[in-house]
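Worked Example 4.2. Consider the chain below.
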Amino acid sequence: MPAERQYGRRRREEGIAGDAPESSGRRSWLFPMVIGAIAFFIYLMTMTPGMQMGDGTELATAAHVLGIPHPTGYPFYMLLAKLWLVITIGGDPIVRTTLLNAILMAAAVGVTALILADILRALWRDPFAKAVYIWAGAGALTVAFLRFHWSNAVVTEVYALQFLLMVLFTRYAQKIDFTDAAKLRRRLIGVTVCLALGLAHHRLSVTMVLPWLALWFIAWRKGRSDVALPRLPWVPALVALLIGASFYAYLPLRAMSDPPVNWGNPDSISRFYNHVRGTEYLDRGLLKPALGKEFSASTLALFSRLQTSHLLTDLVGQFLPIAERFEAVPGTQKIFVKSGGLIILISWLLVALAALGAFRLWQSRQRAFIAVLAAVALQNVIILYVYNIADIRD
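Applying the procedure from the previous section yields the following structure tokens:
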């Protein structure tokens, strides 16, 4: 092979590995913007035009009057939504907060495209980068129009901001380079800021705590063995966490002003704790059929069957438009989605696909499999403890 062709091939392979030329760098930023714009346009065309069922009306009203919505209060979202309402002029507040949600979810879709593109570049040993962009774009748009993501992008809800913070956290973690001191410091601060803002927003952000601790632990171990790495940015990280925690001061400060929306009136230590902890919800949580009632063997079997069917239907429902039929068990507070046989079959096929992936991981890297399994189990236990309410899937 001539030297010029060898050089050209080597440069293309280096580009796939991440050492792309400047024009490729510009294209890499254009790519997530285009994917996010596609998602935003469809969100905009399907956006709820006004009043909404669910929490949207309450959240928009609370943002409009700087009030306190239902637990956990979502202080970061309240302040962000209020700032958005001040910036935007004209139109109903709930329409403008819904538009904010569409923007946040579209931004999250763009970041997802970047995450997938880097994963595919690492796996795809091919000099043609267009295929990477096609598959990453398709994957990101699939994420954009999963049922729960789409439904939360076209109403006023807290989950679009939550998803954006979590994919930003993932992106910073993905780009961490333990051999580059400057990048390591920036990315560690980045994941910490995402965690801090997430904890100031929604309790589901506790799912970022374990990977955050793992990243800092690995960096600390690397720093002890590599004298070239500087001290970790402990002080900026601590400042970021304190700033995130300070958002919760919004709740008692606004409660003292008695705003029109003042759920739980958290103006004392006990009421503040109950509101942030969601104590109003905790008496209706895991495996509790109703207030003051306990399960019997027969009702527990019925509950388990309906709950499993509901979970499987939710899984398929992310990808397929399913007409839902609901079923309530007498004497309980839970309402379940009834499923047809075909839906259950498809859902089990998806579960089998996940099991196959887990088995392949076990075959190739048993320690990684055990670590992943333990992390997933621990994350679920944490969620059940801090976010165990009646309207989530136990």
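Residues 63 and 81 are 6 Å apart (CA to CA). DSSP finds 17 helices and two strands in the chain. Compare this with Example 4.1 before moving on.
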